Model the fold of this input.
Amino acid sequence: MSTAESAAAPLVPHHKPSIGVKFAYGLGQAVQSGGFDVALPLTFFYYTQVLGLSGALTGIAVGLSLCVDAVMDPLIGSLSDNIKSRWGRRLPLMVLSIPLVALGFGLIFAPPGGLDQMMLFGWLLGASLVARGATSLFNVPFIALGAELADGYIERSRVVVWRTVIGLLSAIAVILLTYSVYLSPPEGLLKATGYPQLGWAVAATLAICMSLCCAGVFRYAMRLPQTEVTHRSMLARLPGEVAEIFSSKSFRTLFFSCLAIMVAIGVNGTFGNHINVFIWKIGADKIQTLSFILLIGMLIGVPAAPGLARWFEKRSVVMIGVTMLNLVWLVVPVLWIAGLYRPSGEGAMPPLAAMMAMAGIGIGLVLVAFPSMMADAADEHYLRFGHRREGLYFSGITFAAKAASGVGVFLAGFGLEVIGLPRQAVHGVVVAVSPDALDRLVLAHGPLAAGISCVGVALMWSYAISRKAHDQISAALAAREAQAPAA
Done:
């Protein structure tokens, strides 16, 4: 056994869920990977370029819904931590969210015809609040449940791998529905009639995956330890609980690092379809190909993360992933802005394919290492305070991610007006854009996002829970639990 493997060996026994439980649990990731990450980002392009809603109003609607959703996350996290029922702490909220998620995703892509700007803005805001709020109602307890399925330093990463890989498969299914069925060439992303059908198809897919997830983890989840009954209301106890988790340096580090990185991803991702249409000049078939390449890269990065975590600390794995993203956001975009390299159409595919593969590997590393770090930080919190706060811990990270993404989308919406892109395609044809506007679009999409994410990488340096430190935490928790019956 190597030195690294010896260091990774647990000091105390750890429980492991079966493969069946891991698989069923992983199906719940479809809500995030297939719905939130693939389907919902189409909203910005759909409402601005297809329906003609102004970029500013679209940015306000999507950004505001994300911020409201972010505020809900700590409430949901606290509620999830303190529920006591025959079905466990997490499942009741997950089951309740299923019909709401399906309804929200269907409505957001199916606004009634003939709405003016303000009515269309209202519809987008209302539908976004339902879709994103219901997604949080599922995701916060779902992710917290993942931290409870296993407690080993490496085993937790394996659970995240199962969740992420199955989530990627759901993303592939949604991409196929999007670009091969409902938004297929020649109209592609400009096919107005395809979006409502896509929305309801995605809604049905997510509902099925969520239902199978809840059914598959039911027996396991209901046997997990539950909190002591509290008679204080959620609003009365929440301020103290939030203050408690922010007193942890590990949580603060992860929270503010995530905040910066997600602002960058929000800015970059919001402009993604505009970049494909106006800069690279590629259609739906090529966008689908690039989406698959991105997912292939993620399928490489996801299983590689636990292996890297055996040789490097999880903090280093996250930094490697974000650095790969920054290279994608900087190299070709800077060459484009400088006028040194400006491929388009078929000629743009080789560099874009390489960029997507690298970005996918980087994202895969972050998707596994970051949640695993948060679970370790929650263990540290339990040792220090004697309270299980997984729901609140993970809601803190989702709060940071959504609030930051909301800011990113909000800035991108106003950015469209400043950049000078056309508000709506004319008869399904993209109109000409000035060279200066294109330069500003590329600058915002790449270098600006990379600069913001570097702040998050810098903040990550102070995260101090190493493999050795977590083994010591696990041993201390095991010793305390062993003494509990005699207390």
Remarks:
- Confidence is low (pLDDT under 50) at residues 1-14.
